[in-house]
Amino acid sequence: MSRRMKTEYGVFAVVLAVLFVLPLTGAASDNAMRIAFNIALYAVFAQMWNLMCGYAGLLSLGQQMFIGVSGYATAVVCTSYGMPFVLGLLVSGVVSALLALFLSVLLLRMRGLYFAIATWIVSEMIKILFTGWKLVNYAGGMTIRVTPYPTLSQQFMLILALAAASFLLVQAMLRSKIGLGLAAMRDDPDAAAGLGVNIFKMKTLCFTVCGFVTGIGGSIAYLNRLSVFPNGAFAIDWTIAIVFAVIIGGTSTATGPIVGAFVYVLLFNFLSRYAGYSNIILGVIAIAVIVVAPKGIMGTLQNRFKFELFSSTRPSLD
Q1: Please, which residues have CB within 8 angstroms of residue 80's CB and are 6 or more apart in sequence?
Q2: Which of the residues in the chain have pLDDT under 50?
Q3: Nearest CA among 185, 178, 60 for reference residue 112
Q4: In terms of Cα–Cα distance, which of 242, 203, 1 is closest to 108?
Q5: CB 52 within 8 A of CB 46
Q6: What is the dihedral of CA 137, 156, 243, 65, to 10 degrees?
Q7: How far apart (Å, rounded) are the C-alpha atoms in residues 229 and 247?
Q8: pLDDT tens-place string over residues 35-52
Q9: d(Cα 70, Cα 77) in Å, to the nearest integer?
Q10: Three-class SS string for 187-220?
Q11: How many other C-beta atoms are found inside a 10 Å radius of the C-beta of residue 32?
């Protein structure tokens, strides 16, 4: 590892340590903690979507299915069976990963918009299934009960730990031969296959990893929200927010999803006073960024000043 990389990861570790300690000091208000929680949450989701779309070329519009399934898995494990929330997190991640693995067989032969639309349709089908399922109380939703219930500070530390882990996981994947295969698959699947890259295996690995991490994030999200309902859990609003964060921050950049999550949450909180127009305003902002800075904030800065934070340079296949 180069000196520059050591410095970058050193700064990353210091910032992370400060953020972990901050809730323990009591210096941050509840409102500030909620904003920080949401930034970390969307950073997790955006990091996974960026891995799928930005680095592997898998455009998914159905990430809400992992969030919704994990929310319900947490409710069933913790409320129906009285298990600890840590077990709920683990089960949620595993269930989401298994869902992704199963869907890989059905969906990953598709490409481009066909795959994107298929993921959205599957998510809608799962929503209908949960709406009519007695085990999860039909459309009435479920309340999540955990004893003892994690405090907001503890929830923030959980999601912050997941955000850090997801960032490091993506970096580790991109700097390995897996990253080389994902990039080749994204740029030209046919040429990559001709060079010996197992396209289906790469897609399945990426989709399953993203399902697992997104599932754990969804579990923590619904621990924070206290209850889960089909219409909210499987709403495409989740994916719209994730895509917005990645576009704003910068697709195919290491820190873009984090910057995008920060911008999205602050904008969403500011625009919440304009209830009927917030999504329209966010859409206009996204279009403006695409036109003015198509590579997002971090991508544009990196091109302008010729630098790259947390370079994902990959080793050769030799």
Answers
A1: 135
A2: 314-318
A3: 60
A4: 203
A5: no
A6: -20
A7: 28
A8: 999 999 999 999 999 999
A9: 10
A10: HCHHHHHHCCCCHHHHHHHHHHHHHHHHHHHHHH
A11: 12
